Write the structure tokens for this entry.
Amino acid sequence: MANHESTTDDAFMDASTRRLVDLTLNAAYDSLADSVVRECKRRLIDTLGCAVGAFDDALCATIREMAREYAGPQKATIWGTSLHSSAEMAAFCNGVMLRVHDFNDTYFAADGAHPSDIIAGILAAGEAVRADGRSLLLSIATGYEIFCRFMQSVDVGARNFDQTLYVTVGTVFAVGQLMRLSRHQLGHAAALAIVPHVALRQTRKGHLSHWKGCAAAEAVRGAIFAANLAARGVTGPSEIFEGKQGLCSVLGQFEWAGQDEWPALGVVRSTYLKSLAVCYHAQAAAQAAIELHAKVHGREVDSIHISAYEEAVRMIGSDPSRWAPRSRETADHSLPFIVATCLVNGKVDARSFDDAELARPQLVDLMGKTRVDASAQLTSLYPQAAPARVTVKTRDGSTFEAEVRFPKGHASDPMTDDEVEAKFMSLGGGRSNLPALRSVLSTLWSIDECADAAAAILPALQALCRQ
């Protein structure tokens, strides 16, 4: 399709779009601090580990079968296989895989979401254009920066929109950078991605469905599709942020509008990894319950009291569905279920959310004895901390209590490189897969030296998932 507008004409962009386009096009790998490069590698390792750990999930298998039906000139690999699909469908499939077990990273500011969701799009776009490792890492750093700065500026959830809006914004600029879109094309790609993808927060309310694990993947898919449209000269709406009926009309003015310039890329260092496969709002409570496991094991529990910050209670500790979860999606967002599981088993993992566990009489009984409330003290610590306190009273009159303020993986209690590797290896099958695991890890730690990043990463992932 011919583009009938001048490639130097950016009058269709508002100030916010221009700022984001400028940030994206002016970013350079050589300007990244070593610590930023390191954190981008750690996020890549963690995210791919989450995907490998969910490879056999039934929903992931369903989406893989669907992806076989899609093809296009820009083909991309479905992680862990030799299958290819269109870039946007591969990104959707891989995005579901990395997200479905709710084990990928998190960030909190005005709202909360999972910045590593964008990596499914970055790898798909990177494979299509045969991007080198440095370009891939720069794209991750750029996408994280835009994702998190946008989140700092506006709480979309307060307006009943879904957190996947952050995913759309972060992904479209990251993949546009990889695809070397012009300034004109990138502005239109943003419009074509953002305007159609202002999703509703109902995704995360009541009994949760499969869509909770698919919503971010859809945002990524839409961003790649939009970038491909813009690359072919398709134009999008003008003034998408500050126009009369743009995003600001429903979300309010964004914080970045008043900034003279962006700080150096580096917000990736402030995002949090997860040590447990549950909603981040439950990480502290789960750790506290695991700490109490040995103390209450074998005792008859009389009551469980979970105190947390207000947002955690609102999200995963107030709706009646959280006391009677019928799906893994609801259970991994249920404070009562997660704490009961950790008290009984001393751990929580993907198998904790099997149907048999949801119906396990001991866990159902403990949930019935559980009370959740918001503590003013703990709420005052959020979002700088993500605290919770678990108090268990037993029939013999004993009281046991544990409090965690910074869950393992939080920026104030980060996972070490060894712990990141251990999580990856556990998700990849542990000692039975050692050669394949070591091969993938070696590749990912040295990805900045690879001339074709996807060609280096994806065969190793396939070998790992074949074991």
